[in-house]
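Risk register update: the risk of archive-format incompatibility is retired. Evidence:
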Amino acid sequence: MPGRQKPNLSGLIELIANPLSTYTVLYIEDHPANLALVECLIARHSKFKLLTAPDGDKGIALAKSAQPDVILMDINLPGISGFDALKILSRDNATAHIPIIALSSNAFPGDIAQGIEAGFFRYLTKPYKIDDLLDVLAAATYFSEDISKEI
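Archived output:
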């Protein structure tokens, strides 16, 4: 949304301060090592529940049924790409409101620009810094809460 600023949320302090809030994160990723890293990270934060899907088609189905607060998505997935999955989710009224964060090894400036232009909420390149991922998750959940109030 125009004019919306990313909140200054180091280490998810503002999210953790709200004892009633829990957030569901869907991670669409086919590489076990990348999945394990995010699983360990999310497990350290009781405010998050993690759902996973190994490809774009299963991720889309899970997003529709589970209605996560945020989606983390690899770009290079088996079957349909992260870009194709983003298009499908963005065009569906049931999932269009969910912020989708790209996590990709495609790290050239043109790749990042293409991801932002396509509609990803943020685009992080692998390897990413843990604090950067936490800050982006905080911003996305803040955005998700704000949007859900408007719906």
